[in-house]
Fold each of these.
Amino acid sequence: MTTASRSIQILPDLVVNKIAAGEVVERPASVLKELMENALDAGATQVDVEVAGGGRLLVAVSDDGVGMGRDDALLSIERHATSKLRDIGDLDHLQTLGFRGEALAAIASVSQFTLTTRPRESAAGTELSVMGGKLKDVRDAGCPPGTSIQVRHLFFNVPARRKFLRSEQTELAHLRQVFVEQALSHPERGMKMTADGRELHRLTGGATLEDRLRELYGKEVARWLRPVKGKDSLLEVEGLISLPEGGRSDRSEQHIFINGRVASAPLIAYSITEACRQIYPRGRHPVLVLNLRMDPASVDVNVHPAKREVRFRNPTLVRDFLVEVLRSAFTGGLSPAIPVADLSAFQMPPRAKDTRELFPSIPSRVPDPAVRYPSAPPAEPFRAPAPISAPPEKPMAPGKEPWSWHRILGQVGGHFVVMETEDGLVLLDPQAAHERVLYERFMADAKRRKVVLQGLLSPQTVELPPRDAARIRENLPTLKQLGFGVSEFGQDAFLVDALPAGLGDVSPEKVLAGVAEALEEMGARSGAARDVEDSIAQSACRTAVRFHKQLAPQEMEQLVNDLAKTMMPYTCPHGRPTVIYMGFDELNRKFGRT
Ligand code: ADP
Ligand code: MG
């Protein structure tokens, strides 16, 4: 092309819209998102979604919202036509989901588009047909108040984009994801979704978030949910998060909303991971719905045209607050703010197939051996094999703790403790269990600033490699607070004259080396004071725990009871499981018994 033949031209609207469509409309699911958001912005109490052919044939949304008069309807499909934003100042206090005024124009430019709408106060409605961005028809229409939009044959005039659409199932999965997100962010609105004539969801309006989650995911998921709640001057957080028992192997069921808008931000993902670090085993993730409310001026939603990714004006504050609030959702069992009914979820046996192996159930009553073991030998004392610890004579009251009824059978493999609980077999790793117990005690003491020092008979000097020494030096005040009597003693050497009492008889050298390593590992991560303490406690507990010996029956009993009293009995502080559970149901199934 020669430069002489070129001149600058303003692109016609039709072309601009088609280009914009590339940003706003990636696939049928993006159309659905824009249409649903518009319906919600219009104050609809009921939003009905219909799709066909994975959204290629049809994406339609009808609402009972405010509707539009004819002029507004015609304007609505013009680029940058919006009723939601008047001037630049408005960008700082957006209350609506849309504001760019480009969605309808973009969608209409790449589809066969019909809009039918009627404000409640008008007798007649309007119907517009647009074909590839060109207005084809405008006429009066008899229709109920509200707006109904049909988008057919998306990308019919953009073959290049059509080619990038995936299979019907994949596109439908994306459509459903959008529907679920909108449903979760607005449980108060009624919603329905139909695909190829089949009803997928019918959600009643006026619901709470918990109702809605139950409607969408079923009782099994709902039973493991714990409330998340917190508020400070910057941010209000409300939502639900699952305990490890209700966790998933991926993050697909984590839904974040900021001021009612679906949002994502690396910072939020990071905060979730951080909050779950010692609670979830590696590779497991919570089901999570988080509603963040904050001053629209302190969050920038305009980063991406699809308006998902957000930026915070105060990232550090948001992160620290989120981590704190999420963590307290797990451990907040002690807070009176949480209804007792929710606590009981924590004590119920898991039934979800994918978690049953990891987590033990919590008995609520003592089993009747005659029912459980129809073919077991008769229960005369002289013929039954002597249990290592006899089961309690009388059923205990439904316990607050897991394994309130249990019978320890012994140790296998020179290590694992085997026990029977009301409805299954539990294998317990004494090392992981002990770590959990020590760690929680340690942190509880640290929190109350009540660590007990235990002086060493003879103070010891510990020399460390320079990097480790530097880490320890940086954190001396924290170590002191946690009960470590450590002071500098020349270059890269330290004098240790006391250790936290809970650690028992450990080598100061090993503890300090372990702590240095943990601090190193933590390095890049947040470094909030609480995390430093956490890291130190974790590594110290790990060093302190060594089980290379046979445990006496009383020791096993003690450990099981101590573990049952912890807040997170099912994983060690590093996220390894403390117990593996096999239910009698499962055993019966494996043995082919019915
Ligand atoms: P935005 O939502 O960013 O304002 P859109 O292109 O999505 O831009 O919509 C343009 C305008 O059309 C909106 O500002 C609104 O006034 C009107 N509109 C769109 N959908 C509806 C609806 N379902 N009910 C009432 N008005 C609507
Ligand atoms: Mg919109």
Amino acid sequence: MTDLRDAAIRVLIGNARGLSTVPASRLYPHQWSWDSAFIALGLRHLSPHRAQLELEALLGAQWADGRIPHIVFDPATPADAYFPGPDFWQPHRRHDRVATSGIIQPPVHALAAWETFLADPAHARRRSFLDRLYPRLQAWHRYLLNDRDLGGGGLAATVHPWESGMDNSPAWDAPLARITPVPADAYRRRDLDHAGADQRPTDDDYGRYVRLAADYRDRGYADDAAAFGFAIEDPLTNALLAVAEHAMAAIAKEVDADPQPHLERAAAVTDALTTRLWDPQAGIFLARDLVGSDTIGHHTVAGLAPLAVPGLPVADRLVATLRSDRFGLGRVAMVPSYDLTAAEYSGTRYWRGPSWFNTSWIIWRGLREHSHLRDADRLRDSMLDTVATAGFREYVDPLSGRGLGADDFSWTAALTLDLLAEQSPEGSRC
Ligand code: 9WN
């Protein structure tokens, strides 16, 4: 285990760029939003100070409307190293200090800030870490729950597959089919320089991603519900928002603010999740398509993520789904991103089946949250075995455990450090 810890540390040091960390040096050469939150959750075991700086660097790029952009571009990296790069997003329209994208990613940040604080409270207090972050995190959650409540039901909407963090999920196939792709010869994909085309999204889907991003940009990133061709209420984003509001309640107490509004918001999001997205027959949460006005019947790991929400009333039913043949808990490497029994399942293609470390980590937290400790320990052991064999890969084939995607992937290394450190359910929690 010492070897694994040392190897994880080496990955994070190798991917550090000044005050922030890139997800993978070639494929993703800038700072990504939810990646940095997971990275901080690991870095706090190594250097709480460096973990604080990681989050501060990201929040330094927050927009005036409260959104935390999904990419903060590294000025030292050539603009064409990743597509779409800074020139595409034209962020100077809304934010002129640093170059960023204009879309968002799931809100793991308040949880990461709280757990980073807990790693060394005295040091964090000396730096006024939470005093400085609290108003920024409040603005971020306000943005999600006000500007992004496009369905009016108390949940934050996701307006681009990249915002979901699970870009190529089969759940987005039908809503994306309505979008006309930008032709492949109108831009140059950079991801295929570093990853196999058989593991990445198709050109047609990439063209649709580009179309959606360009349309949003051309509307000045205005969140006008009627204008979006793609708008989804996603259980992963909203589960993480509920978890984040619980973390905000803990942060509020620490900074002498009122925790009550955060607890109320956490309860309201949890209620909205169960009333709008829960499918009692299937025993899983579904994404809701706000343009097509219906839930989407695909069973993905996003639908299991509400397990991490404290007090979730249907937690035991979700655990039964996790153990079923659809997700194979205890029998396959980590948690697959998609239903193993579905026709569209692929063990190798990006978010259409492979197991990812961050979503498996969320499920591990959820199992502990709801006192399924034996399942949690088994999942943790299996994640550590997988990483010891496959390396710090971006994702793995759930059935063979074969490592896929980028090598030396930062959140895989960071969350390995977290799993190694958090051996008992009495560890630091909000
Ligand atoms: C687009 C960086 C990001 C992750 C996402 C993952 C992938 C980007 C891409 O990489 O998305 O944001 O180019 O495919 O899907 O979850 O944050 O690691």
